[in-house]
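S.,

Sequence below, as promised.
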Amino acid sequence: MSKIDDKIAEVQDEISGSPVLKKSMMKWAAIGAVVAIPLPFTMPLGAVAGATYGYWKGRKKGG
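The prediction came back faster than expected:
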């Protein structure tokens, strides 16, 4: 479990230290949630998928 905890801490530190990455994740999480509105039980999945895409896109930009 130590490796997982270390990776979680690393990702949290990376997100906290980068306003560009944080903004990208928030924007794409909101878009994912809005797209998932027609099926209410999928809204959290849409938000998670959007945040994941925002994290990937933000890191790719060098955030």
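The longest helix spans residues 43-60.

Coffee later?
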